[in-house]
Design a protein that fits this description.
Shape: elongated
Mean pLDDT: 84
CATH superfamily of the largest domain: L,D-transpeptidase catalytic domain-like
Order of helices and strands: HEEEEEEEEEHEHEEHHE
Number of domains: 2
Oligomer: single chain
CATH class of the largest domain: Mainly Beta
Distance between the termini: 38 Å
Length: 186
């Protein structure tokens, strides 16, 4: 799918609903990833292949500072900022993809009308089964599960919080997400 999307536009967006991560792919590589909030169980984010059909600066209200409308039939779905930053990382929206305002502002100028967007259900389970507890160079990998904090993960492996933060070069240790790989130092 990635090759088809690259040929069509040169850059594309992937959204994994399981890990709640948006990836921006540019020039044949993953350029950035961002945490997102996605649709709740009663109003899920539709999976499939779509395109960005419109872009609006300062749409107002709950939509934060930027809106990128998607070509999803039967609704008004988009990638947008939020006036509720704690909702990022959760299943919280009416089907849209929420981003931190600073993240959507960084992404917005790089996305053109017509940019392909691939939304998939993804699966944390297969990644967890293949990576959880695997040793590599004396280090272990831990896959973050829903509801876990970095402190709980560090404590589980008998490591200090600071050691785990440093090993993973985490700029904001308060923001981790299910499916994220955390390196546990030896």
């Amino acid at each position: 799918m990635a090759d088809k999307l690259m040929r069509a536009h040169g850059s594309f967006i992937t959204i994994n609903l399981s890990t709640r991560r948006l990836g921006f792919h540019e020039g044949g590589r993953l350029a950035n990833t961002y945490p997102v909030g996605v649709g709740k169980a009663s109003t899920p984010t539709p999976t499939g292949s779509y395109t960005v059909r419109e872009k609006i600066i300062h749409p107002g209200g709950a939509l934060g500072t930027r809106w990128m409308g998607l070509s999803i039939p039967g609704g008004n779905y988009g990638i947008h900022g939020t006036n509720n930053p704690p909702s990022i990382g959760g299943y919280v929206s009416n089907g849209c993809i929420r981003m931190y305002n600073q993240d959507v502002e960084a992404l917005f100028p790089r996305v053109m009308i017509g940019t392909a967007v691939e939304i998939s259900a993804g699966t944390v389970q297969s990644k967890t089964e293949s990576l959880q507890g695997v040793t590599q160079g004396g280090q272990r990998r831990h896959i973050v599960q829903a509801g876990e904090s970095l402190w709980e993960i560090a404590n589980k492996y008998g490591k200090s919080l600071e050691t785990v933060i440093t090993a993973n070069q985490l700029a904001n240790p308060d923001v981790i997400y299910p499916g994220q790989v955390i390196i546990i130092p030896a």
